Amino acid sequence: xxxxxxxxxxxxxxxxxxxxxxxxxxxxxxxxxxxxxxxxxxxxxxxxxxxxxxxxxxxxxxxxxxxxxxxxxxxxxxxxxxxxxxxxxxxxxxxxxxxxxxxxxxxxxxxxxxxxxxxxxxxxxxxxxxxxxxxxxxxxxxxxxxxxxxxxxxxxxxxxxxxxxxxxxxxxxxxxxxxxxxxxxxxxxxxxxxxxxxxxxxxxxxxxxxxxxxxxxxxxxxxxxxxxxxxxxxxxxxxxxxxxxxxxxxxxxxxxxxxxxxxxxx
Length: 266
Hints:
By secondary structure, the chain is an alpha/beta fold. It has helices at 3-8, 33-43, 66-69, 87-100, 122-134, 147-156, 177-186, 200-209, 218-221, 226-246; strands at residues 12-14, 17-19, 23-26, 47-51, 76-80, 106-109, 138-143, 160-163, 192-194, 213-216. The strands form 3 sheets. It has a 5-stranded parallel β-sheet with strand order 5-4-3-10-9. The chain has a 3-stranded parallel β-sheet with strand order 6-7-8. It has a two-stranded antiparallel sheet with strand order 1-2. The chain is globular, with a radius of gyration of 20 Å.
């Protein structure tokens, strides 16, 4: 089996739909829609998240529409509630997205605590999640790295749980891998690292840990060459997943010769 065959026979399932790419990307912070389009194409992503409160996806007919650069016929559009600080605002934003996208019900829920850290407000996140699931949304939820909260969100009906690696846009990588491993051990839905990735090695680490996928925006958009970084992230995600599937060698305290001495010519 070739490496490419292994990737394509190992799809990511979100709400019952199969995806070959395990890299999910955002659309913010690019210089223009053309750069957005080219970076997303280079990333190989199939799921693209869109901040409904900050991006025109049809609510402003006289302005450039992101969906012209990222057509829903080609990508799964994942509306998100970035910029929401209350459950009520998040629910309202998801309903707007569903109206603009002709009944689309897969959403990324994030309810933030403050503007300085953009850390999730878990109390409001739980409230919003309960309302959205009751209203038949399929919720992929941004959360902290608390395994108890992650399990609660899963049990409430979220189709994916997405703990942060570190603060949004920080580029600090995965600061608490131990908690994320616990979340994965207990989860019966996909666990994605969302936020904090800074470069390709961060993405590879997340995948080597066994995360189902990684969602990122700033790591690509804020790079000096976003198109090249998008390509690097694509390769990192694939390499990390292949390494996870291959199973790394055990760590050892002492050296182990690559060429054993047993049977050597005397």
